[in-house]
Amino acid sequence: MRFIRGTFVDTPAAGKLRIRLDHVLVVDGRGFISHVLPFSDPTIQSALALAPASAAPDSHSRALTTLPAHTFLLPTFADLHIHAPQYLYAGTGLDAPLMQWLDRYAYAAEERVDADPALAERLYARLARRLLEAGTGAAVAFGTIGVQANLLLAQAFQAAGIRAFVGKLSMDNSPRPTYGEASTAESLASLTSFLDGMDALAAPLATHERLVHPILTPRFVPVCSDELLRGIADIAHARGVKVQSHMCESRDQMAWVEGSRGKRDEVVFDEAGLLTEHTVQAHVTSFPPRLVELVKARGVTVAHCPLSNAYFSDAAFPLREAIDAGVKVGLGSDIAGGYALPLQVQMRQAVVVARLREGARREAAFEAGEEAGDGKGLRVDWVEALYLATRGGKGALGLGGVFEPGMEFDAQQITLAEDGAGVGQLDLFDLPDAPGLEWWTETVERWWCNGDDRNRTAVWVQGRQVL
């Protein structure tokens, strides 16, 4: 058992910021939270009477660790959409349209990674480290079409201590002669081989130590036949595996689908049986009310990628409307369509895009001589964005994302100040010895706006310190 005393911050619901001062969080030997109670609670006091004091936060003994005065714990972030091999060239070629960019950069990088296991190992080890430095403790990753490279990706995440869903790409209609799968049968056979390999990697581990799982990954409709999509749905049902893909991302992509299939993305996916509560669909920037209702009815999670949408989509995802409609939404970096790995960038960008949408709505109302109305409108605030990065994203993965009994202890330690001064870019001029709730609320927001990796002084996943 481990006892941690201090300030705990989380978002149990969209728009709700919970700050618990002078609480004790108890972690059991398997990395799950057993109690979160005020330090003064008799249950905690009785347990602490048997616990020796300790300054080692990762100790597995019955020890009490007290966080410094201006430090708090926050659940780790969940990146619901990242192309792991594309980290190789993140920040390149963002002026090109989506379909051209994929051919010029994405497919070429993925071919390199499949052909060079040594490169894959170096790339994925570095990616895992960078994710932890950014506070990302869970990731939903697109890989490549090759089995070996994806198993190397899974091994890198497991070794680093990151929760991950790793997806071997399936694409039997690739437009690139050198990068694709020759037939539906070959694609499904390769996918089965990958799943068997993932089972073998997990077999020696205890259940709570199995951080990495497979996820079925038809890249997107343009490169997948209807037969392949139906086959993937059959495998998902038979083996109980989640599914991820892209849906309704850009006009050129959707025009390709409608021109070749005669129907929209979501119809193709739905007819194949791939829109379920175990599906994560990235982007969905074309999100009319009828599609909102379909996604909500099927229980699909949307991975909102605001930075990459600014470059490759023709519309902004209607985040305010999705939240209000009860759609399951999390955030994704979309490396390399989004150039920034830290999910903190995506949180800020999500708020900026939503505010711009509201500004455009109000301007249109003004020009039409109409009342714009008061209230939030289409805006999204920082607390809601923090929810999407933690509880919202984790929920799509069957995880907690908050500090509650029974949930996984996945946490990042954020140090706002030490030695009488703010850390990193945080210049804090009022540092009370015993900060109250108002100070914490204001200063957590300041960290959300201006904090960086220098404030992140530790990360735990499933109770184990990994940074």
TrEMBL record:
Its cofactor is Zn(2+). It comes from the Eukaryota. Residues 72-465 form the Amidohydrolase-related domain. Keywords: Hydrolase, Metal-binding, Zinc. InterPro entries: Amidohydro-rel, Metal-dep_hydrolase_composite, Metal_Hydrolase, Metallo-dep_hydrolases. Pfam families: Amidohydro_1 (PF01979). This is Amidohydrolase-related domain-containing protein. It comes from Vanrija albida. The lineage of its organism: Eukaryota, Fungi, Dikarya, Basidiomycota, Agaricomycotina.
